[in-house]
Design brief:
The chain is α/β, with parallel strands linked by helices and 452 residues long. It has 9 helices and 18 strands. The strands form 3 sheets. Strands 2, 3, 4, 5, 11, 12, 13, 14, 15 and 16 form a 10-stranded mixed β-sheet that branches. The chain has a 6-stranded mixed β-sheet with strand order 1-6-7-8-10-9, covered by helices on one side. Strand 9 (319-326) and strand 10 (329-336) form a beta hairpin. It starts with a helix and ends in a 31-residue tail after the last strand.
Length: 452
């Protein structure tokens, strides 16, 4: 009896298990059916889309080009750097043409080009013009990179940032420059950038209704002042570095009338044929003269530290030297000041803020190829001082400007043709056997930073 009861209970359990299993199978079949129908629908959509795209390609639909541009960035890495450069050359240096050729987005092309150029490559951009040639030509430098000069014994006078405007009287620093050049007879004279201002073609908006000089008037003024320096130089080598303001002259013409690039007069150097032009000048293989590099209050320090040699820069309008000594010896980071007057209209953009600038220039002296400590001609008050003497005094309201007078004595340490003024007679007209009475000049307020 007991066995019969146990057998009946086992049969009931088995039937329940079978029913549950059948239910699970039914649910699984239903789920798989839904999934199959969904996958089948998606495949039909993809196949249909491919058919539409193929039809659009044959019809030249612009939607295809849009799609290629959107998705083009995903395939840029399929090009090796060399393949990318080859494609760039075939496109004539035009990102737009290359995008049409390869289907890569223009933005992705620009990004890839930037990465390649950071690695040392050169991929210049050429605007895509209808009907233009897509034949690639190697880039040609428009400016000399560096000029090497030798100065074994002698002086080099280096000035910068004249920012000459027409109708502006000669500054004290400018007059002192001509006086010093005539006196010490340097063998090298360098205009270290920004002799031209280009106020009317600046990327900056004018200050209200300010009356800015025309390019023609500025250019004629620059030519006249540079000719005066040339006349005072008496055979010295004349060189010029390119300043950011000087570049305004060339850049405006290059962007507005590029088809005129080979005509005479379209570059600033065409108007200053006596002055050799380059980005930088290397003296004796150990000193670099260039218009600008690092900015800020520590600019000269960073320049001399990172260049590993004596370096002479302008741009910041400061007049100073920062010495630096390491295992390579002693060198200098030199700022060449400005020939202009910080109070003149060229700098009204500073809104009458104090300027930590210095009016003057620098003289480098070499003996047997060795650079001596740099010397400055600096304007203090109304007078310009060089080697402890007054070399020019600004005109007062009741008297004309006058340069220092007196005999010219050889500098101690040998006579190699470089002489300095010895002001035996004071500015007040005292006797030769009496020292000159020089009153303490009023120094202009200092501070602030270089503006534009």
């Amino acid at each position: 009896m007991f066995r019969k009861v146990i057998g009946a209970m086992t049969d009931v359990v088995d039937e329940a298990r079978v029913a549950a299993l059948e239910k699970q199978v039914a649910v699984h079949e239903a789920v798989c059916g839904e999934r199959y129908r969904a996958i089948n629908f998606k495949l039909n959509v993809v196949v249909g889309g491919i058919g539409i795209i193929l039809t659009a390609v044959s019809a030249g639909d612009p939607f295809v080009h849009f799609l290629r541009r959107v998705l083009g960035g995903l395939v840029t890495q399929k090009f090796s750097d060399q393949e990318f450069i080859t494609a760039w050359q075939k496109a004539g240096g035009s990102p737009r043409v290359m995008a049409a050729m390869t289907g890569i987005a223009e933005r992705a092309i620009y990004a890839r080009r930037e990465r390649i150029e950071k690695g040392g490559g050169a991929l210049p951009t050429v605007p895509a013009r209808p009907g233009g040639s897509n034949v690639y030509s190697a880039p040609v430098r428009n400016y000399d990179k560096r000029r090497a000069v030798e100065l074994h014994d002698g002086c080099a006078a280096i000035f910068s940032d004249a920012h000459w405007w027409p109708g502006v009287p000669l500054t004290t620093a400018h007059s002192a420059l001509l006086r010093v050049i005539r006196t010490i007879k340097p063998r090298l004279i360098v205009a270290n950038g920004d002799i031209f201002d280009g106020a009317s073609i600046s990327r900056h908006d004018p200050d209200g209704w300010q009356n800015l000089p025309s390019v023609h008037a500025e250019l004629e003024t620059v030519k006249a002042h540079m000719a005066a320096v040339e006349a005072a130089s008496r055979g010295a080598q004349l060189l010029r570095t390119i300043g950011n303001h000087d570049l305004r002259f060339d850049r405006r013409l290059a962007t507005q009338v590029p088809d005129y690039r080979h005509l005479a007069g379209m570059q600033l150097r065409d108007h200053l044929p006596a002055w050799g032009e380059s980005w930088s000048i290397e003296i004796n293989g150990s000193a670099i003269v260039k218009h600008r590099w690092h900015n800020g209050i520590h600019g000269s320090y960073n320049n001399v530290l990172k260049s590993g040699r004596t370096i002479v820069t302008g741009h910041l309008h400061r007049l100073l030297a920062t010495p630096f000594t390491d295992y390579n010896g002693r060198r200098f980071g030199i700022d060449t000041g400005t020939l202009s007057d910080p109070s003149h209209a060229q700098f009204d953009y500073a809104e009458d803020a104090p300027k930590n600038w210095g009016m003057g220039f620098v003289v480098l002296t070499y003996r047997s190829g060795v650079l001596l400590p740099p010397e400055f001609c600096e304007v203090l008050g109304s007078r310009a001082y060089f080697r402890g003497e007054v070399v020019h005094e600004e005109a007062q309201p009741d008297q004309p400007a006058r340069a220092a007078t007196g005999e010219v004595a050889a500098r101690p340490g040998g006579d190699f043709g470089n002489r300095v003024p010895s002001v035996r007679r004071g500015v007040d007209g005292g006797a030769h056997n009496k020292p000159a009475r020089v009153q303490v000049p009023r120094v202009r307020a200092a501070g602030g930073a270089k503006g534009r």
